[in-house]
Design a protein that fits this description.
Number of helices: 6
Distance between the termini: 46 Å
Strand content: 25-35%
CATH topology of the largest domain: Alpha-Beta Plaits
Amino acid sequence: MNNELFRSFLFADLSGFTALTEAHGDGQAADCASRFYELAQQALVGDARLVKKIGDAVMITATQPMDAVATALKLIASVQLEPGFPAVRCGVHMGQVVERAGDYYGAAVNLAARLTAFARSDQLLCTRQVAEALSDSHINLRPCGSAQFKNVAQPVEVFEITGISQASEPWVIDPVCRMRLDPELAPARLPFQDSEYYFCSLVCAQAFLQTPEVYTRKG
């Protein structure tokens, strides 16, 4: 029995989680991932269901793409208000999948995950299928062109869901651990090459001082 279904899928992960782990250790990283999982559960809209967590990522499914997108928007807003947290990035796709013991398998799942990895911090991306399904909604969509993903034969048309409200605080990013900070409350700040950098701790500031070029390298 194939148990084939047509579902919408949202993947969300923490941008810079590896840097946070390296800077602050496994314990703090695990606490951050656990809190992210709680925020994802609290963000579910409509019939959206949290299928599983995968390290610093979560996989969510919904019958309707609007529920998956609304969940993503709510999750991004929640993470923006969470102190000492990295940013989140999200991707939504829809398609035919196979269900096994409450989990889902298929090209639609894989593409949603690839799309999330392609997104920038605080960015929500979707495919043309999702964009067309949302055409009659209030959601704002911006075409981003086509992208080629690993193990996906054809280029994929990508759209950004815009109009995501940003947190009102003047956030900056610690270049070492990628944690979001209020610059007025940052424990340390250092100048480097005509820019000023802010740090969540003296540990991160010291790491930056040792090899600033590693943390300011573009790309």
